[in-house]
Amino acid sequence: MKRQQIPKELVKAMNENPNVEKATEWTVTFTKEFKLKAYEEYKHGKPMREIFTEAGFDVTKLGGKRIQNFRNKLVSKAEDDSGFADKRKDKSLQTAPSTEAQMMKRIRELEHRNAYLEQENDFLKKIRTLEEECGGKEEKRR
């Protein structure tokens, strides 16, 4: 599905809203304070559309899909260690895979490859056995 571009007049209105850090024709970045407030209200059972309306957004122009995606991202970020901080801006929040994690991943890959090769060997042994059985029967017939 193609992303919908935000109309320029809506982008301008959103940039004037104190709950928006930055809005472009393609993206909207909300302030950390708005995210925290929205999450708290959502946890207490308030619908996300109502939260957006109270914050001064036109939900009909913004669209249900954007609001739904915001809610999904909000819930997943709340469970994350870094919370609602923007990882794109703060390099210290970006986690590089640890050496131990890399080694565990490599071990899983090698175990998978080993299991695959064992299955392949078993399959080839069965084929060889069948060929010997079939070849042996042909020699006995002659």
User: Could you spell the SSE succession in H and E letters?
Assistant: HEEHHHHH
The radius of gyration is 29 Å
How far the N terminus sits from the C terminus, by CA atoms, comes to 67 Å
Low-pLDDT residue spans: none
Range of strand content? under 5%
Number of strands: 2
Tell me the number of helical segments per DSSP (H or I, 4 or more residues long): 6
Your description of this structure?
- The model has no long low-confidence stretch (mean pLDDT about 80).
- About 65% of the residues lie in helices and about 5% in strands.
- It folds into two domains: about 10-90, no CATH class; about 95-140.
- It starts with 7 loop residues before the first helix and ends with a helix.
- Strands 1-2 form a two-stranded antiparallel sheet.
- The longest helix is centred in the last third of the chain and has 43 residues, at about 100-140.
- With about 140 residues, the chain is mainly alpha-helical.
- The chain has helices spanning about 10-15, 30-45, 50-55, 60, 65-80, 100-140; strands at about 20-25, 30.
- The protein has six helices and two strands, in the order αββααααα.
